[in-house]
Design goal:
The structure holds 2 protein chains of 2 kinds. Chain A has 11 helices and 12 strands. Chain A is an alpha/beta fold. In chain A, a hairpin with a 2-residue loop joins strand 4 and strand 5. The model of chain A has no long low-confidence stretch (mean pLDDT about 90). By secondary structure, chain B is of the alpha/beta class. Chain B is built from 13 helices and 12 strands. In chain B, the strands form 2 sheets. An 8-stranded mixed β-sheet of chain B has the order 6-7-8-3-9-10-12-11, sandwiched between helices. In chain B, strands 2-1-4-5 form a 4-stranded antiparallel β-sheet. In chain B, strand 9 and strand 10 form a beta hairpin. Chain B is globular, with a radius of gyration of 21 Å. Classes of the chains: A alpha/beta, B alpha/beta. Chains A and B meet through helix 6, helix 7, helix 8, helix 9 and helix 10 of A and helix 7, helix 8, helix 9, helix 10 and helix 11 of B.
């Protein structure tokens, strides 16, 4: 993916986030590592929506947190507009943060229950105005907040309400308005619709889509639901056990998945279509996702892989181009 | 599937008294389950799917809950009128249930073999040793590797998918007539979900167990069920065979729901340069507190008429490959409105 790094808004290179496993109460000693993210390369171009998909525990959210500098990386770099975020001073980082904001999964725990809706949305503006990074008066901030609320489908008359007075979908709208307040270039959306019901989910997806067009936003969209990812994103990266195993644009990934894991994942997604469901042949994977605390010498997927070969136990394949715009990390393809 | 009906729910009403007022969680639900049939109960959170099934087994905590009306006919008896001891005998033996979260529904301090064996000892009068042997046999059947050793493990030593397998083993150990599965795969990842659904399908087909599958995922329903009831605000608004419902939905809510799900097989249609917009149902589900007697869907419905705002539509029977009904004024003949 390094060839596209030049015009990339966000580039992630060899990102690793390892958490220590400690034992003992007074004298802590490290007994191992949880390799939550274990060598992720990504690049997101301006205006693109990159989807990060994978099962729970595969490191999607940790990747997002490390990109947003809310979690420090063990190894690797996060380049935003070509600048290594980890090397910035706290002051510079604060400035840079205006350009990347997060929408969180749980619309219940990501809003402070004791702050009114308008104040939640205005908070980032107030903080940046107080520090002199943006020049806005209180009146301007309030006007901007109300227009953001309106844009996100919340009536300005809700401004003085508290989070508990809103439904899940409306709370997610508050979270989105807050993320947009500082006019970011990149929005990291971590499972923004997983907590919502189907009829509300489509409202939020449409809203995000409209906002993307209107504000020319770039998205890093994280979800476990392939259908949601395919709908929203132009490009998809599939993660397994802390690594990216395949990337392609969404139509290619659906029609020509290459990695055995992607194939299994796609075949496991239930389709709301009874005739297709009856005809489908599912690839049912054996067993569970192994623990990320085990160090894998070979390919981390090999124990569940229906096409595992001898070679897979010896070394891990690397993400490499299998065809134009389609990268895969599997020994079935010569470049890996 | 045969035509023999094994469970009939008639006009079930379950209410909860809350500080905000009376909540009619289930408001006149009727359906029939045939032997070997898999019936899907679909709807969004708070529509009353779970409460319906808890009511069938009389598992509603009272107060604040109360089963205020209706009948649940199983083997010619009305369970709602039957004494508690009689229902207790049926639970787990004739009608068993698996829940969404396998961690909270297993006892953390008991070995899994003990938990599976409990029902066998209780309902089939097996001795301790026989029950344990049968429990191990069940673990083998559900695909737990090395069942003899794993039988002595505790729930926390199993992964999420394995725990749900153990729940299924418990639920099916007594060969029940009916299995109620309440969102059995919602907490699981898709590849594990595929394993579990496969397991439920195979095991229930063996003994012609009827299944009530509660879920919000229309994809799961399409692959598992023979017929479907769609619930909205405590009532069943449409009931049809799986094909009729998916290819020819009659209720505006069902249609809206089907149109608003993004589908993997439409990836190409969503396209490279900005996908098409998804259909979305405006607004959000109503509060069930002190519901007026109107169609609860009318504020979100594109076809709402005056009559929808003033009274609840009666059930209309339609042609279909299975008993098919819809509750919507659009399908009521004009002179009867």
């Amino acid at each position: 993916m390094n060839d596209s790094d030049n015009d990339a808004l966000l580039a992630v290179r060899g990102l690793k986030v390892h958490f220590p496993i400690e034992k003992g109460i007074v004298f802590k000693r490290r007994v191992g590592w949880v390799r939550a993210v274990d060598g992720v390369d990504l690049s997101v171009r301006k205006g693109e929506a990159l989807g990060l998909v994978g099962e729970s525990g595969c490191g999607k959210s940790t990747t997002a947190m490390a990109i947003a500098q809310l979690q420090s990386a063990t190894e690797g770099q996060v380049l935003f507009e070509g600048r290594n975020l980890a090397a910035l001073s706290p002051r510079e980082l604060r400035r840079a943060r205006m350009n990347f904001q997060i929408v969180f999964q749980d619309p219940y725990s990501s809003l402070d229950p004791r702050i009114r809706a308008a104040d939640i949305i205005a908070e980032p503006l107030r903080i940046y105005a107080r520090r002199g990074i943006i020049a806005m008066s209180d009146a301007e901030i309030m006007a901007k907040t109300l227009s953001l609320m309106e844009r996100c489908g919340l009536s300005p008359s809700f401004a003085t309400r508290y989070p508990h007075e809103f439904s899940g979908g409306q709370r997610q709208r508050i979270g989105i308005a807050r993320a947009l307040a500082l006019g970011p270039k990149l929005v990291i959306a971590d499972e923004p619709v997983s907590a919502l019901d189907v009829s509300i989910q489509s409202q939020i997806l449409n809203l995000l889509k409209d906002l993307q067009k209107e504000f020319e936003l770039t998205f890093l969209f994280i979800a476990h639901d392939l259908a949601v990812i395919e709908y929203f994103c132009t490009k998809i990266a599939v993660m397994y056990l802390g690594r990216v195993v395949e990337t392609a644009d969404s139509a290619t990934l659906y029609h020509r998945p290459l990695h055995p894991y992607t194939k299994a994942l796609l075949s496991a997604v239930p389709l709301p279509d009874p005739r297709k469901e009856r005809q489908r042949r599912r690839i049912i994977l054996k067993g569970d996702v192994p623990s990320p605390s085990i160090e894998h010498r070979g390919c981390p997927f090999r124990e569940r892989c229906p096409e595992a070969m001898e070679r897979c136990a010896l070394s891990a394949p690397k993400l490499a181009s299998a065809e134009e715009g389609h990268e895969v990390s599997c020994f079935l393809f010569p470049n890996s | 599937m045969s035509d023999e009906s094994i469970l009939r729910v008639e006009g079930l009403v379950t209410q909860f008294r809350t500080e905000y007022g009376l909540v009619k969680a289930v408001d006149g639900v009727s359906f029939e389950l045939r032997r070997g049939e898999t019936l899907g109960l679909v709807g969004e959170s708070g529509c009353g799917k779970s409460v319906t099934n808890l009511s069938i087994l009389k598992l509603i905590q009272s107060p604040p809950g109360k089963i205020a009306g209706g009948r649940v006919i199983f083997q010619g008896r009305d369970l709602l009128a039957a004494p508690e001891e009689e229902v207790r005998v049926l639970r787990g033996k004739n009608i068993s249930m698996i829940f969404q979260d396998p961690l909270t529904s297993l006892n953390p301090v008991l070995r899994v073999s003990v938990q599976i064996a409990e029902a066998l000892q209780l309902h089939h009068g097996l001795g301790k040793r026989e029950a344990k042997a049968k429990a191990i046999e069940m673990l083998k059947l559900i695909g737990i590797p090395d069942p003899e050793r794993r039988a002595d493990d505790y729930p926390h030593q199993f992964s999420g998918g394995m725990r749900q397998r153990v729940m299924i083993a418990m639920a099916l150990s007594c060969d029940p007539d009916i299995l109620i599965a309440d969102e059995p795969t919602t907490a699981l990842d898709v590849t594990i979900q595929a394993q579990i659904l496969d397991l439920i399908k195979n095991l229930t087909a063996r003994n012609k167990t009827a299944v009530i599958m509660i879920t919000h995922d229309l994809g799961v329903v399409a692959g598992m069920c023979d017929s479907i009831c769609v619930m909205y605000a405590g009532r069943i608004v449409e009931r049809a065979s799986v094909d009729d419902l998916f290819y020819d939905p009659k209720h505006p809510y069902t249609r809206g729901l089907l149109d608003s799900i993004p589908r993997v097989d439409r990836a190409a249609a969503y396209g490279r340069d900005g996908p098409e917009r998804l259909y979305s149902i405006p607004g959000s589900p109503p509060s069930l507190v002190d519901m007026p007697d109107c169609c609860p869907f009318h504020p979100r419905c594109a076809h709402a008429m005056d009559i929808c705002r003033s009274s609840y539509p009666p059930e209309t029977r339609l042609e279909g490959s299975a008993p098919r009904t819809v509750n919507c004024w659009l399908h009521v003949e004009e002179k009867r409105r």
